[in-house]
Amino acid sequence: MEIIAFILSFICITLNARGHLLTWLFSILSSAAYAWVFYEAQLFGDAWLQGVFIVLAVYAWHSWLSKDASQKPLKIFTRMPQNWNLWGGLAWLALFLVIYFVLTNYTSSDVALVDAFLTAGSLIATYMSAQKWLENWLVWAFVNVIYIGLYIYKDLHLTALLYALLIALCVLGWKEWTKKIASQEVAA
Fold first, then answer.
1. How far apart are CA 28 and CA 19, in angstroms?
2. Given 28, 32, 63, 104, which is the most exposed site by the fewest CB atoms within 10 A?
3. Can you tell me the distance from the alpha carbon of 30 to that of 7, in angstroms, rounded to the nearest whole number?
4. Blockwise average pLDDT, block size 10, the chain, 188 residues
5. What is the chain's Cα-based Rg?
6. What does the DSSP assignment read for the chain?
7. CA 13 to CA 177: how far, in whole Å?
8. How far is residue 19's CA from residue 64's CA, in Å, rounded to a whole number?
């Protein structure tokens, strides 16, 4: 199952780096596959996160499809609002505390601290991606570096490799979205 999840995730992130709508279909499929993988590895925060990713992927798909009255995409690629650093940081902290509490009190997780931190960060990055904020790629790169170590520790070596590749795709995503923002500014 890890191989299937790996392939679906790689396709998903490649499409997202290019700003393609099918990102969200592959997000749903890869999240379902990884929910199984992570549950089996007792990474309960990550397993739960996959369910949230599915819900967020549906939201993002709808968000990316939304049109204004002139039939232009409602959500354009943009930079995050300046006040998001504060609100995003507070949201990350709040999510971390809730997830950590749940993992330590209701699961047999042996990596609750790291699992909670990365789960919360992934939720923030997914929200940022759904908003088409360029800086989502920075958050993803940060959490992916830490995920690599976690997955090696949990003997999920193929998934650790995927996350190393995802860091390279974060660079591609940053470049592609930067071009889209520049072309939108020229067209405006």
1. 16
2. 104
3. 8
4. 91 82 91 94 88 87 67 71 94 97 93 95 90 93 97 94 90 90 78
5. 16
6. -HHHHHHHHHHHHHHHHTT-TTHHHHHHHHHHHHHHHHHHTT-HHHHHHHHHHHHHHHHHHHHHH-B-TTSSBSSPPBPPPTTHHHHHHHHHHHHHHHHHHHHHHHS--S-HHHHHHHHHHHHHHHHHHHTTBTTHHHHHHHHHHHHHHHHHHTT-HHHHHHHHHHHHHHHHHHHHHHHHHHHHHHH-
7. 13
8. 10
20 contacts: CB under 8 Å, gap ≥ 6 = none
- Asked whether 156 and 3 are in contact (CB, 8 A), the reply is no
Q: Structure pTM?
A: 0.81
Residue 61, both tokens: 């798909």
Query: Please, what is the Cα angle at 43 between 42 and 44, to 5 degrees?
Result: 90
Pair 128, 57: CB distance under 8 Å: no
What does the block give as tokens for 110? 């042996």
Return d(Cα 144, Cα 70) in angstroms, integer: 38
